[in-house]
Design brief:
single chain; alpha+beta; Ubiquitin-like (UB roll)
Length: 136
């Protein structure tokens, strides 16, 4: 077993995992503790929501869960770097679509040219003109 870091939009989780080539296998209890998903006979469950695991999903590996298969069942993108022992588990397309359709911008805080920090939440109730620029 080795320490493996799972990054996701809501936080950073360090779990014990078994690395087998390009495959990362995480203990079921660690997945439940870090990500909140429990493996049950009816599928992957969190609170009152259960996602069925399709036959042949290759999720279960000797009482543990394959991280790539877990991401596929949850329909979440996964960027995996086995050599660095880190993965990013992104939000599902459905979650991103719901956020975009709400027309509510996510909060962020950035410095101005003088180094003073400004948060979008500080402007609540005001009209905001936001200009974004990138050099690439």
């Amino acid at each position: 077993m080795a320490h493996f870091t799972i990054l996701e939009p809501d936080g950073v989780h360090v779990v014990d995992a078994r690395i087998d080539g390009e495959r990362v296998v995480v203990d079921r209890a660690a997945v439940a503790s870090a990500l909140g998903w429990l493996r049950k006979p009816e599928g992957l469950c969190r609170d009152d929501v259960c996602i069925p695991v399709p036959p042949g999903a290759a999720l279960d590996v000797d009482g543990a869960l394959d991280l790539t298969a877990l991401a596929q069942v949850l329909r979440r993108p996964l960027a995996l770097d086995v050599g660095e022992r880190v993965a990013f588990l992104g939000e599902s397309a459905a979650t991103r679509a719901a956020a975009l359709s709400s027309l509510v911008a996510p909060d962020f805080t950035l410095p101005d040219l003088d180094g003073r920090m400004h948060s979008l939440a500080d402007q609540l109730g005001k009209k905001v003109f936001l200009v974004a620029w990138a050099s690439w």
